[in-house]
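TL;DR need structure tokens for one chain.
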Amino acid sequence: MKITLIIVGLMSALSVWASKVEVDINGMTCAMCIESITKELKAVDKVENITISLDDKRAAFDEMKGKKMSDGEIRAVIKKAGYEIGKIRRH
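>> reply
TL;DR here they are.
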């Protein structure tokens, strides 16, 4: 019984995040690129836990439950930072 309650509690905690989003970003070459993209993503109240890999040319972030971004919104945020994006993946 205790194990079931713990599992249910953990599942509830994890459900706070709706999905993980990964975005391929074209044109990133330096730390300033990462800073610019991070700044624009942080300004969005739907985004949390941002990580950006210069090696992979990819940004990843969590969308908050009930606050999902459309692909167009994601593209606009990245474009505002000065970059174009490739593929968007949601997990």
